[in-house]
Write a structure and sequence with these properties.
The strands form four sheets. A seven-stranded mixed β-sheet has the order 5-4-1-6-11-8-12. Strands 2-3 form a two-stranded antiparallel sheet. Strand 4, helix 2 and strand 5 form a beta-alpha-beta unit. It is about 30% helix and about 25% strand. It is globular. By secondary structure, the chain is an alpha/beta fold.
Length: about 250
């Protein structure tokens, strides 16, 4: 199974911070933002990883991450997205890398408390065809793709709805079989001029092959000033909590 981190775009919602660097190279507490999705994949057992980047600072990823040896990887693959065509457009660029393998896709500005290792194992070993998404209950679901849920099934996903059908957001980590690239080739740009990942997920719903898990721990994106601040706060609190646990463990 292969991993893909989507770290392109211009990060205009974070101007002027992103006038001189890629959004995903901004710090979240004590590490560059890109470290967090990378470690999410590595900790889930994914060793074959591609980063999709773009803008004027793409070379900085190579200078920062190199071949990935610091993270226990033999190599990291890179590809370049011109402009801002949406998540599905960025994913389209990775078809040659993925081949016929299943993939885990994570947005470069998403930070998770939960490990996705068990879900990756389940998807790789027990699900022959389909896709899997991760949901989290949030206070502002209208900022995200929102699922309409009936029982244990997702009926459809609506992108940034004015009247959300549930309190859940579709978070920025997805798992797909290789048919995802065939779906992307059929997409038309949305009203935002982008190829929407929500349209991809809705196709799997039509096939009855979209599975989901609900995250137990915290989750946030870091694409706005408010959510970037929130991400910094969550990571700092997590680091402090880990330090306290280590001190208590040593004393006991």
């Amino acid at each position: 199974m292969k991993g893909i981190i989507l770290a392109g775009g211009l990060g205009t919602r974070l101007f002027p911070l992103t006038k001189i660097t890629n959004k995903h190279l901004l710090p979240i507490y004590d590490k560059p933002m890109i470290y967090y999705p990378l470690m999410t994949l590595v900790n889930a057992g994914i060793k074959d990883i591609m980063i999709v980047t773009g803008g004027n600072n793409a070379g900085d990823f190579l200078r920062l991450l190199g071949n990935g040896r610091e993270f226990g990887l033999q190599d990291i693959a890179y590809t370049y997205q011109e402009g801002e065509g949406g998540i599905a457009d960025a994913l389209r660029l990775t078809e040659h890398f993925a081949g016929k393998d299943k993939i885990v896709v994570i947005l470069g500005d998403n930070v998770f408390e939960d490990s996705i290792g068990d879900a990756v194992f389940e998807f790789e070993k027990n699900i022959n065809e389909g896709a899997m998404i991760f949901l989290k209950e949030v206070d502002d679901p209208g900022r995200f793709g929102v699922p309409e849920i009936k029982g244990n099934n997702i009926l459809k996903i609506i992108e940034k709805p004015k009247a959300p059908p549930s309190g859940f957001a579709v978070t920025g980590v997805y798992m797909y079989d290789s048919r995802v690239y065939d779906i992307i080739k059929t997409l038309k740009p949305s009203g935002r001029g982008e190829l929407e990942i929500t349209d991809v997920n809705n196709k799997y719903i039509e096939w009855g092959q979209l599975y989901y898990r609900v995250l137990k721990g915290w989750w946030t994106d870091a694409g706005t000033f408010e959510s970037l601040y929130k991400a910094n706060t969550l990571i700092k609190e997590a680091r402090t909590g880990d330090d306290i646990k280590r001190v208590v463990s040593r004393k006991s």
